[in-house]
Amino acid sequence: MMSKAEETRRFIIEKVAPIFNMHGYEGTSLSQLTEAIGLTKGALYGNFKNKDEIALAALEYNISKIKGEISGRIGPIDNSCDKLIALAEFYRDTFDRISQRGGCPILNAAIDTDNTELPLRDFVIRSIDDWMRMIILVFRRGIRRGEIKEGIDAETFATLFVTFIEGGIMLSKVTGKRIHLDRNIDYLINKINAELRI
C-alpha cells in the first residue's frame, strides 16, 4: 500500500514522463510540468528536490514501461534466435506508438544529455549497458544450447543490434519515413537467420 506522498509522487511522474520525452530535459518548462499535473510549483518541489530529480524519475518510468513490454513479448519465447528476432520486431511493432509519445526515451535522453554530467546521463548509460547485457545473455545462452553458431562475438553483435535499432528509430523519426527502421530490422533478422541460427 502506497502512502499519500508516494501516490502523489507516482501521479506526478506518470503525468510529466510523456512531456519530458516529447520536449527533452532542456526543452521542458516548469509551466508545462505544473499544467500537466494541475498542481502548483510548490507541490511539484514539495515532492522532488529539483528539475533534475523529476527528469530522472520520468526517464526511469518511461524506460521501465518499455522494458516491461519487452519482457512480456520475449519472455515466453524459448529459442534464442527467435527471442532476438522478437526483440527487433518489438521496435517495428511499437514504432508508431512510441513516436507519438516523442520517440525512444533512451535515444532522446542520450541526445539531450550527451555533453553533460547530469545523473540523467548516467542513467542513460546504465540503461544502454543493461540493454546490451540482455542481448549478450540471450546470445550466449543460445550458443550454450546449440541454437547460435560459435565464432561470432556476442558483444559486437549487441553493439550492432542496439545501433541498428536506435539509428533506425532516429532516421525514421526525423525524416518521417519508417522505411529506415524497417530496413535495419530486416537486416538484423536476416543476419540472425543466415549467420547465427543453427
Can you walk through the features of this model?
With 198 residues, the protein is mainly α. The chain is elongated.
Strand segment count: 0
Rg, Cα atoms, Å: 19 Å
Gross morphology is elongated
Distance between the termini: 48 Å
Give the overall average pLDDT: 94
H/E series: HHHHHHHHH
Estimate percent helicity.
over 70%
Class derived from helix and strand content: mainly alpha
Strand content: under 5%
Instruction: Give the biggest beta sheet.
Output: none
Unreliable stretches: none
Secondary-structure map:
Elements: H1 4-27, H2 30-37, H3 41-47, H4 51-74, H5 80-100, H6 105-113, H7 119-144, H8 154-175, H9 179-196
Helix pairs in contact: 1-2, 1-4, 1-6, 4-7, 5-7, 5-8, 5-9, 6-7, 7-8, 8-9
Main attributes?
198 residues; mainly alpha; 9 helices
Concise overview:
The protein is mainly α. 80% of the residues lie in helices and 0% in strands. Helix 4 packs parallel to helix 7, helix 5 runs parallel beside helix 8 and helix 8 packs antiparallel against helix 9.
